[in-house]
Specification:
The structure holds 2 protein chains of 2 kinds. By secondary structure, chain A is α/β, with parallel strands linked by helices. Chain A contains 7 helices and 24 strands. Chain A has a 5-stranded parallel β-sheet with strand order 5-2-1-9-20, covered by helices on one side. A 5-stranded parallel β-sheet of chain A has the order 11-18-12-13-14. Chain A is globular. In chain A, helix 1 (11-23) runs parallel beside helix 6 (299-317). Chain A starts with a strand and ends in a 24-residue tail after the last helix. By secondary structure, chain B is mainly alpha-helical. Chain B has one domain (3-94). Chain B has helices at 27-36, 43-59, 65-70, 76-82, 87-94, and strands at residues 3-6, 9-12. In chain B, strand 1 (3-6) and strand 2 form a beta hairpin. Classes of the chains: A alpha/beta, B mainly alpha. Chain A binds chain B through residues 157-159, 163, 194-195, 198-200, 221, 223, 225, 235-236, 264-266, 294-296, 330, 346, and chain B through 64-67, 70-71, 76-77, 79-80, 84-86, 101-104. Chain B: This is TusE/DsrC/DsvC family sulfur relay protein. Chain B: It is found in: Cytoplasm. Chain B: Keywords: Cytoplasm. Chain B: InterPro entries: DsrC-like_C (IPR042072), DsrC-like_dom_sf (IPR025526), DsrC-like_N (IPR043163), DsrC/TusE (IPR007453).
Chain lengths: 413, 104
């Protein structure tokens, strides 16, 4: 009997165990997943909570029923992985042996890493995040109370989960403030460490002009050093005062990754970008946000990654070489307000391009252009997440990116 | 791949002028590259450049500012003083390394 241990029952970890339980014979493989939380959150929904869309119960489900029968769920925190003994030490002292280990503990916001954010007396008073359930709910109340002034949307440092979410937040805030009749009394500022609205040139130009159209001022190349006197202060001493700050704190991987000697400077596990095998190890993988692959930290990446990984691992279990190679495929709907959205689709080598995205029976969706169908696609995704994605059922989306429908603009910005 | 002449030598660069061949770089070239963006190299600059070169050789990727700060031990504040405005990009340029890819 061999044992696969998965750390984390978030989006990636749940998909891994649910897919592999069907592929690995129960007589041969014990599958264990370790997760400290009781509740699983539909994280893409956090974006909408501050605007009063979605009720909290639409975004949470208990963890246990999401885990396939035949998978052992261990409710515990991880203290560390002892790689020399192939053993996971839990915070309560229990030890779990593994033949293969998958680290899927993601990243989380770390506001304590920026001086003045958590400790300046303004946290959840004039400073909010929306990447946590509690933060998004607290922000909803603050937005209801907000009566104009300067609202700053801010990213601390890349990489972050769902890198388009702060842009979406800015678009939705614009619409929300218009609806409340206080947009003309509100200055909206988008402060980012990137040189523009997004990392990739064609999308950055398109999304940048969408900020312009909504009169949202962008402050690029802004790397925050500290918060003081209700201002963001950058390392090169630029100051951005705010009345309401919506920040995306530094994202870091789990601390046990660092304690186990498996992480980089952000506690991300360095892996082979095509197979997710941790560098320097032959029986440890890291999948989803927990690894350091150069693509978006997003559920879509986790999903496409798990497709490749599950096939590879099945081969590995059968004593065959892993032949699947992940191409960095990511796609996401970008909510742009007023019932419209964009869709972007890209991989390691191809940046998001305009065009159409063919999906049999549903599409086509419009790529990098606003349309209502993309908005509804985004809304429908919540149902797909709970009912198809997490249980590891097939979605009509191929794991590898396709150039079908995409257009390369003749001149680049 | 464009070829340009810097300090009397043919050097392979990308569209934005970042070197594309690790081994074509040497300290003399670094001084010349730094001069092009208005920087005169001091010992403090060299400490950062040396870390970047060695880290790239080991990791195969250009270090982020956080990595230079946490692993290389040079505070981010100092990097902004040494390479004003866009330290990550400027350091990579002078160190003859690929532009650090903004993670998406």
């Amino acid at each position: 009997m061999r044992r696969l241990v998965v750390l984390g029952a978030g989006t990636a970890g749940t998909m891994v165990v649910d897919k592999l339980r069907r592929r690995l014979a129960r007589a041969d493989w014990l599958i264990t997943v370790v997760e400290p939380r009781d509740q699983h959150y539909y994280q893409p929904g956090f974006l909408f909570l501050p605007f009063g869309e979605y009720t909290p119960d639409q975004l949470t489900r208990p963890v246990a029923p999401l885990i396939s029968p035949g998978v052992e769920l261990v409710h515990a925190e991880v203290d560390r992985v002892v790689t020399t003994d192939d053993q996971v030490v839990l915070a309560d002292g229990r030890r779990v042996d593994y033949d293969y280990l998958v680290i899927a503990t993601g990243v989380c916001p770390r506001p304590e890493q920026t001086p003045g954010l958590l400790d300046g007396g303004h946290w959840r008073r004039t400073i909010f995040d929306f990447y946590t359930y509690e933060g998004a709910l607290a922000l909803a109340e603050a937005l209801d109370r907000f009566d104009g002034g300067r609202l700053v949307v801010h990213i601390t440092e890349m990489p972050i989960k769902c890198p388009v979410a702060p842009l979406e937040f800015a678009f939705l805030a614009d619409e929300f403030l218009r609806g409340r009749g206080i947009r003309d009394r509100t200055e909206l500022v988008y402060a980012t460490p990137l040189p523009g609205a997004f990392t990739k040139p064609v999308a950055a130009a398109r999304l940048g002009s969408m900020l312009d159209e909504r009169k949202i001022a962008i402050e690029p190349d802004f790397l925050v050093e500290r918060i003081e006197d209700r201002s963001l202060v950058s390392y090169d001493e630029r100051r951005i005062p705010f009345d309401l700050l919506v920040t995306v704190p530094l994202n870091m991987g789990a601390d046990f990754v660092a304690r186990s000697g498996l992480g980089d400077e952000l506690n991300l596990v360095p892996v082979d970008r095509h197979t997710f095998l941790a560098k320097g190890h032959d029986n440890i993988f890291a999948i989803g946000d927990a690894n350091d692959i150069p693509t978006s930290k997003a559920g879509s990446v986790a999903h496409f990654s798990v497709d490749v990984f599950a096939r590879n691992f099945t081969d590995l279990a059968a004593g065959k070489p892993m032949t699947g190679r992940f191409d960095g495929h990511a796609n996401c709907f970008v909510e742009s307000g007023r019932g419209r959205g964009l869709l972007i689709d890209f991989n390691y080598d191809t940046e998001p391009l305009p065009g159409t995205y063919p999906v049999p029976g549903v599409g086509p969706f419009r790529l990098l252009g606003e349309s209502p169908v993309n908005h509804w696609g985004k809304r429908a995704f919540r149902w797909m997440y709970w009912n198809l994605l997490l249980p590891g059922r097939p979605l009509p989306l191929p794991a590898h990116m396709s150039m079908a429908g995409k257009h390369q603009p003749s001149t680049k910005e | 791949m464009p070829v340009t002449t810097i300090a009397g030598r043919d050097i392979h660069v990308d569209d934005e002028g970042f070197l594309t061949a690790y081994e074509e770089w040497d300290p003399e070239l670094a001084r010349s590259l730094a001069g092009r963006i208005g920087i005169e190299l001091t010992d403090a600059h060299w400490k950062a450049l040396t870390f970047l070169r060695e880290d790239y050789a080991a990791q195969g990727e250009t270090a982020t500012l956080r990595r230079v700060s946490v692993v290389g031990g040079i505070p981010t504040k100092e990097l902004f003083t040494l390479f004003p405005k866009k330290p990550a990009k400027k350091m990579a340029y002078v160190a003859g390394l690929p532009k650090p890819h903004g993670c998406v």
